[in-house]
Amino acid sequence: MRSQTMQFNNGIYVQSSASVVGPKEAEGPLKGCFDKSYDNLYCGEATWELAERKLMSEAIELCLQKANKKNEEIDFFLGGDLLNQNITASYVAREKEIPFFGLFNACSTSMEALTLASVLLDGGFAEHVVTAVSSHFATAERQFRYPTEFGGQKPSTAMYTVTGSGAAYVSKKKSKIRVESATVGKVVDLGVTSPFNMGAAMAPAAVQTIKTHLQDLRRKPEDYDAIVTGDLSRVGTPILKSLLFEEGIDIYNNHHDCGILIYSADQKVFSGGSGCACSAVVTFSRLFDELKKGELRRIFVVATGALLNPLMIQQNESIPCIAHGVSFQYEDDYSNR
Amino acid sequence: MDQDQLEKNKKKYKKAIEPFQPKPSYFKNCFKAFLIGGVICAIGQGIANLYIYYFDLTEKTVASAMLGTLILIASVLTALGIYDRIGQFAGAGSIATVTGFANAISSSALEHKSEGVVLGIAGNMFKIAGAVIVFGVVSAYIVSMIRLLVQTLIS
Which range of residues forms the domain containing residue A110? Predict the structure, then answer.
């Protein structure tokens, strides 16, 4: 039978990671966790697109700095963002001069990139791979919705795009965080058409990926300290939990959502955070820190992506969604082996 | 999965997520829209009264001067990043008024400043407001045609 889950038994490890965020994220509950933050959406640049590029470029720079690596030593750079033609990642790749794969799976690109990086490493085609994703509130607003200063009212199911970028460097050298397995999602579309209700649109994709992952590996939710979704927010999260419960999978005790973790409820972010950077900056900062300390032993991160295109929505199409999951494991005896 | 089953699943899902959707509070939203919309109109009337008092303007001629002032205020508030917050609070109250129209134009212009004056600002200025203008002109044409028809029929 077909298996959507890959297990990396040859040892793929996260060497270092970094996150750079914008003002609202830096004021949120995770403020101490990020490597760098800006107090302005422009991040000292002339346009928002340049600001997003700066975020990704710095995330990679900081990530490689932590591992003492130079751009020339990296075999491949796997990156993506939300903008048309993946412009943030492409322009960053131009600057970094690392062989580049441009990826797009909307907000699930973070885990897509890590999955493919692990495949490249496990197959022996690369020694050092860096992945990075980014999103920016203003660039996303202008591409997917309305001008940022437009006074249209948004419903409370809407989400707030995370401004930031997360980068991770993976190789086969042993470290405390092992990339254990990855489940590749299928595109799921249950007919949600509102771009202001992406939590409800993406929940079935997350259900599909989590269910398949547990089935493929014959595991239970209790085998994980945390099952973390990317950006289902306050609307999608209860839907996910109840749909999985109907399937006999109870994740009420160990589920978290990056879109809820990153902002506090009083930050006026509607139902929560979204964007490529949402799952990346939370996973690559807070969650990886806890894994390194052994506070979390094994986590399953399911990045959810709404493959939304405004043109298709205007043509009355619904929103196809996808979720990619990667499980990370704490390796306590890594230095002795 | 065949098409029928998919359609069934979609319907089932639509029903299943209903209890999880936050209900918009229509009464509260209407009241907020009424309040802010009313305040904007009262400000307009205040400006009109002032203009009539201080300048050589009549009830008929003051309208364009008053509208110009409101448009200016709305555009400045848009540039300062205040108008979108009013919009989130007031909904239709601040969109349906002339200030909402000014906001739609100035926010689009601001947004595309980075693409230059011609292709950016000028090319995108009417991105949102364009539809309003088109339907305004079309409906005005239809209404005046009906009026003309009725007038000729009566006389």
Answer: 5-171
Same domain (yes/no): B30, B14 = yes
Tell me if B10 and A191 make a contact (CB, 8 A cut-off).
yes
Please measure the distance between the N-terminal and C-terminal CA atoms of chain B and give it in whole angstroms: 67
* Domain contains A335: no
Which has the closest alpha carbon to A60: A78, A45, A42? A78
The tens place of each residue's pLDDT in chain A, 337 residues long, gives: 678 999 999 999 999 999 999 999 999 999 889 999 999 999 999 999 999 999 999 999 999 999 999 999 999 999 999 999 999 999 999 999 999 999 999 999 999 999 999 999 999 999 999 999 999 999 999 899 888 889 888 888 999 999 999 999 999 999 999 999 999 999 999 999 998 999 999 999 999 999 999 999 999 999 999 999 999 999 999 999 999 999 999 999 999 999 999 999 888 888 999 999 999 999 999 999 999 999 999 999 999 999 999 999 999 999 999 999 999 999 886 554 4
Mutation target vs A (from B4, B13, B40; most A CBs, 10 A cutoff):
B13
CA distance B113 to B31: 36
Question: Taking CA atoms, what residue in B is nearest to A236?
Answer: B20
Q: Does B75 touch chain A (CB under 8 A)?
A: no
Is the ipTM of this structure higher than 0.90? no
For residue A191, give the nearest of B13, B78, B112 by CB distance.
B13
CA atoms within 13 A on the CB side of B131: 3
A198-216 and A233-246 helices cross at what angle (nearest 10)? 40
Same domain for A111 and A225?
no
Cβ pair A153:B16 closer than 8 A: no
The angle at the Cα of B148, spanning B143 to B154, to the nearest 5 degrees, equals: 125
CATH number for position A162 = 3.40.47.40
What domain range includes position B44? Answer: 3-124
Cα–Cα distance, B74 to A259 (Å, whole number): 33
Domain count, chain A: 2
Q: How far is B46 from chain A (nearest CA, A)?
A: 23
Asked whether residue A234 falls in the same domain as residue A296, the answer is: yes
B84 touches chain A (CB under 8 A): yes
B115 and B149 share a domain? Answer: no
- Scan for tokens 């799952």, then name that residue: A279
Task: Give residues 3 to 62 of B whose Cβ lies within 8 Å of A.
Answer: 9-10, 13-14, 16-17, 20-22, 24
- Tokens matching residue B6: 């998919």
Q: Are residues B30 and B64 in the same domain?
A: yes
Instruction: Classify residue A247: in a domain, yes or no.
Output: yes
Query: Do B46 and B76 fall into the same domain?
Result: yes
- Tokens read off for A264: 């506090």
